[in-house]
Amino acid sequence: MDINAKLKELESVNRENGNKVFTMYLNTDPADPDQQGGEWKIHFKNGMRNFESYLKEGDNKEELNNFQAVKKKVDRFIKENEQQQQKGIIVFATADEEVWYAEIVQIRLENEFYWQETPELDQLRKLKESYPKTGIILVQQNQIKIIDSYLNQIEGTFSYELDVETDTWRVMQGPRKGTAGTTGLGSTNMQTDKFEARYEVNQHRWYKEVASKIDKQAKDRNWKKIYVVGENGVSNVLTDQMNKPVDEIIQKNMLDHEESKVMHEVLG
Question: What is the pTM of this model?
Answer without folding.
Answer: 0.79
